Amino acid sequence: MPIGKDGFIETEMVVKFLSSRNFKVWSQHAAMLNKEDSYGAMITALTNVFGDKNVAIMVLLGKHSRSSSGVSKKLETALFNKWYTVDKYRTADDMVAKVLGVKRSRIHGYPREKFIWGDYSKYITNRVMNY
What we know:
The chain is an all-alpha fold. The protein has one domain (about 10-130). Helix content is about 70%, strand content about 0%. The chain contains seven helices and no strands. The protein has helices at about 10-20, 20-35, 40-50, 50-60, 70-85, 90-100, 110-130.
């Protein structure tokens, strides 16, 4: 269930989705239901509907808009926590192959996936260094 035309996720539609009133009401409801990890619960619900790859791309696109960057950064952290702790993707290369479906040697041909790979690499480095 992609957000956009012809299966391509469009930036404008992602920003509109993440900054919409319905999303804000839903996120407040998720926060009330799961006070410990509200963004983790939202990531679980979003990945059940859209899939890991589409949610990762949506988060990437949402980070670059002022109206949705705050929630996107929190969702990105929750998504990366899920990948690291639950799915056990200890390297960015594992994640890019299993979640995004791109071979590491071909990553330069996929710009969105490359940015996600870079952000996840930074996340792993920071997590290991701050452990």
